[in-house]
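re: ur question from earlier - yeah i can do the single chain one, its not a big deal. heres the input i used so u can compare w yours
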Amino acid sequence: MMNLNRRQLLAGLGGLIFVRSSFGGVSPLLPSEITRETLWDNLDGKSISWFHPRCCMVPLPDGGKRAVMTLQAISGSDYFGPVHWTYSDDLGRNWSVPEPIPSLGRRPLEGHPGLQQG
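and the output i got, formated as tokens:
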């Protein structure tokens, strides 16, 4: 993960503003707005708290786009569950139920009954 200090962030944002202004205020490469949405909350403490979301857009054969996101459940300080994935075919308005990715799951640790790795 890339860590930016304040100066690097401001320089990057300045570059984005320059790119946008060089296209007459419209850039096909940049989103026109960003909104914050909560997909799943755990305010009651009875459901899953999701952490480490990573999302990308994937082109579909029919020309559409699919948003794909990986995320992990967290159940304590630095205690993360297996990696799950979810997707959206409507630009993030609705998401599938997160499902575990078996190849990124936990495996029994040989010689240590009950202990898992991964």
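The chain has a mean pLDDT of 84. not sure if urs matches, ping me
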